Structures are given as structure tokens and as C-alpha cells.
Inverse folding.
């Protein structure tokens, strides 16, 4: 029996298909896990990464364990943002994800240019414009993604602009499939 969530698409995805192939989310953004994510992200409480990843492992990995993939990559931060925050929350979560199949977890393949403008208050159209050409593949890994299935891990999916741009870059560099694993998803992207 096919999982009905695997075939659900929003109206935007129906009319403008994204570059990524599928997305799996643990919970909604305004749910119980939001506080723990904020503590991780904005207060530097790395212990919250353990709890959030544990929730993912307990609730999601049963249904996702048979997805064959070559790489698990976090959504990258720019070097400036990484230095300011001190860690990449997506990597702190992704590296704690239990995956039964052999997979290369790597925070150095996908890189990001620095973006001076915050996207949190932007609408969907501006998010898509702002994120264009923001991501690139580390030259050291050119050719490594040929025909690969890549899982991209992110803490929050809002409009999908970031994950869509990442999927475009990954596929432009040879990836055959891009699957998003997202901790929290906003209910109504703007």
C-alpha cells in the first residue's frame, strides 16, 4: 500500500514543480518542537540537537529507512553566519540522524555565499529571488554527485525556496534525486 503522504502536493508544487523529488517533515513549525529548535538555534543549546534528532529518529526513521541514498547534506550557512552562530543547526541535527544504510554525511560538499538580507519576513516571491545562485558545490567535490541520490536536511521549511535552489544546484552537478528531510514545516508559506 502506498503512503498517501508521498503523493500529496500543494497547489504551488502542482503548477510549478520543484527541483526536489520529495519532502518529509517531522512536525509543523508552531508545534511542540518549536521551542527546542529556537533554543538550539538562537541560544546555542546544543543539547537540544540531541533531543530533536532523537525525536526524528524515533518518529521518522521507521518509514524512511528504506530510502536508498548516497549523501546526507545539511543546508549550509555562509562562513560569516557560521562564525557568528558558532555552529550550523542543520548539521548538528543531520549528523545525529540514524540511517541504517551506508551514507556519506558531509557538511563540506554544499556551500553558501553570504546573504546580507534576512529572509524571515520576506514573501514567497522575494525569497525565491533572494536565494538564487546562493549555493554552490565545493570544487573539491566536483563530480562526486554524479547519479547520486542526495538527502538534504534542514531545520525549517517555509516557502521551499532554499530547498528548491539547493536541489537545482545539486541536479545541475549530477545528482539524480534530491530528497528533503525537514524537522519543522510552516503551515502556510507566504
Amino acid at each position: 500500500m502506498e503512503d498517501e503522504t508521498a503523493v500529496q502536493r500543494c497547489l504551488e508544487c502542482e503548477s510549478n514543480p520543484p527541483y526536489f523529488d520529495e519532502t518529509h517533515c517531522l512536525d509543523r513549525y508552531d508545534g511542540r518542537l518549536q521551542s527546542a529548535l529556537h533554543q538550539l538555534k538562537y541560544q546555542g543549546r546544543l543539547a537540544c540537537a540531541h533531543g530533536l534528532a532523537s525525536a526524528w529518529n524515533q518518529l521518522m526513521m521507521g518509514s524512511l529507512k528504506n530510502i536508498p541514498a548516497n549523501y546526507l547534506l545539511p543546508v549550509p550557512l555562509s562562513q560569516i553566519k557560521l562564525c557568528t552562530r558558532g555552529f550550523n543547526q542543520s548539521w548538528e541535527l543531520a549528523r545525529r540522524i540514524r540511517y541504517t544504510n551506508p551514507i556519506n554525511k558531509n557538511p563540506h560538499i554544499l556551500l553558501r555565499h553570504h546573504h546580507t538580507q534576512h529572509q524571515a519576513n520576506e514573501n514567497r516571491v522575494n525569497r525565491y529571488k533572494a536565494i538564487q545562485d546562493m549555493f554552490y558545490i565545493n570544487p573539491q567535490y566536483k563530480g562526486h554527485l554524479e547519479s547520486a541520490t542526495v538527502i538534504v536536511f534542514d531545520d525549517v521549511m517555509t516557502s521551499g525556496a532554499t530547498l528548491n535552489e539547493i536541489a537545482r544546484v545539486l541536479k545541475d552537478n549530477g545528482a539524480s534525486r534530491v530528497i528533503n528531510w525537514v524537522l519543522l514545516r510552516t503551515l502556510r508559506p507566504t
Q: What stands out?
A: The chain has one domain: 24-185.
